[in-house]
Write a structure and sequence with these properties.
This protein has about 70 residues and is mainly α. It has helices spanning about 5-35, 40-69.
């Protein structure tokens, strides 16, 4: 495994762990937010899911840009 591949794997693992930990706590967060506003809890869930994909999209875009230079 070369250093570039290793760094990419470590970055992906860190991102997955961060989102995994947040997903583990998400039911409690949604219940707390839902006490104030069910709509806000739904928006929070949608932002979380979209954020997951945006992080990996941005990472892939950055890697493509660095590869072309």
């Amino acid at each position: 495994m070369d250093p570039k591949t290793r760094n990419a794997a470590i970055a992906a693992a860190c991102i997955m762990l961060g989102f995994g930990f947040t997903a583990y706590l998400m039911p409690n967060m949604m219940l707390a937010i839902g006490d104030k506003s069910p709509l806000a809890a739904g928006i929070f869930a949608v932002i979380f899911v979209i954020g997951f994909f945006i992080v990996f999209w941005l990472r892939a875009r950055s890697q493509r840009r660095n590869k072309n230079q």
